[in-house]
Amino acid sequence: MGSLGHVTPASMSFDAPLPLRSGAQLSNYTLVYETYGRLNADKSNAVLVCHALNASHHVAGTYEGQPRSEGWWDNLVGPGKPLDTDRFFVIGINNPGSCFGSTGPTHPNPATDRPWGADFPVVTVEDWVQAQARLLQALGITQLAAVLGGSLGGMQALSWALQFPQRLRHCVAIATAPNLSAQNIAFNEVARRAIVTDPDFHGGHYYAHGVVPKRGLRVARMIGHITYLSDDVMEAKFGRELRAAELGYSTQEIEFQIESYLRHQGDKFSEYFDANTYLLITRALDYFDPAREHGGDLARAMAAATAKFLLVSFTTDWRFSPARSREIVKALLDNRRDVSYAEIDAPHGHDAFLLDDPRYHGVLKAYFDRIGQEVGV
């Protein structure tokens, strides 16, 4: 399998307002995106990859002059890989509200000329899909061969199938759910409280104070990271291993290696992620619930979908468990839709969707081979 090598992001600005589910709107905005492979003559080989919570448009390849800048799904997308860029034209789009280039809280609010901060409007999964659809329309792509996403990206893929059923042939939703459980919302709320109670948060307008609520971001990331791993992986990797030879009898210092690991992850995250973006994205996760408009009946909600589906889940993913994917599968089967489902026995928890697993990648490769045959690439 080859590498995409160096890639370069592009951007596109829109002057037509983007109405949001909240009733607010973005009067104008910019989206950052990357593409890999070549769009064929009839534009039938395009695949949109939707990103998860802390990812971006940078799906695959590297940035010149930036070591260790591989895209977040570089193991999946590229020449000869399961999503083969020798056959497909792959697009990654950074969503509005993000801190990776598309218009978000760090950008100027046209009404004040100061950073949006906490005044950036609440965005939903449905809003993101509307923005993505506009960019694809501008690229002249009227129908996607597939929309692919994992976790929060999987929710976007599902939303595509419901909002624009005629604009995608296949929906590939991995390690995702039709909505968040109360436990998942609870984790998000604790993370948000950690951020907004940081003394450096300043009501979300910390940019004006020249500070970043790093303490809150660290804790938020530590909470999230725990939920991305399985108990077995944590036990195998860290167990009760101590950092020093003897107990220090301290409540403040690091005693166990797992504490050191979580603090390291929190520190890294607080250096590159924006706190307001974290609040917006976790709220978008909370709100996603296509069945809500149908009295809680997911089968009625999924009746609007006409695409063919592949759902993939992982046995040790307790954040978005296989049972949540099976809810989607059942709702699709209730509507007699074409759906394939793979439940991968993997030890890695929710993060498994980002990792190399021959069975998982084999399923995706076989499915994209099928899509390739359909669209003639």
Number of helices: 10
State the helical fraction. 25-40%
In percent terms, what proportion of residues is strand? 15-25%
Instruction: Report how far the terminal alpha carbons are from each other.
Output: 18 Å
Elements, N to C (H/E): EEEEEEEEHEHEHHHHHHEHEH
Cα Rg: 21 Å
Q: What kind of sheet is the major sheet?
A: 8 strands, mixed
Q: Walk across the major sheet and give the strand order.
A: 1-4-8-5-9-10-11-12
Overall geometric form: globular
Mean pLDDT: 97
Number of strands: 12
Tell me the structural class: alpha/beta
Q: Report low-confidence residues grouped into runs of 5 or more.
A: none
What do these coordinates show?
Helices cover 34% and strands 15% of the residues. With 377 residues, it is of the alpha/beta class. The strands form 3 sheets. Strands 1-4-8-5-9-10-11-12 form an 8-stranded mixed β-sheet, with helices on both faces. Helix 3 (182-196) packs antiparallel against helix 7. The model has no long low-confidence stretch (mean pLDDT 97).
Task: Furnish the topology, listing elements before pairings.
Elements lengths: L9 E5 L3 E2 L5 E2 L2 E8 L9 E5 L26 E2 L4 E2 L4 E5 L31 H14 L5 E7 L1 H12 L4 E7 L7 H15 L17 H15 L2 H7 L19 H16 L2 H13 L10 H5 L5 E7 L7 H13 L4 E6 L13 H18 L2
Parallel strand pairs: 5-8, 5-9, 6-7, 9-10, 10-11, 11-12
Antiparallel strand pairs: 1-4, 2-3, 4-8
Helix pairs in contact: 1-2, 3-4, 3-7, 4-6
Key phrases:
single chain, 377 residues, alpha/beta, 8-stranded mixed sheet, two-stranded antiparallel sheet, 10 helices, 34% helix
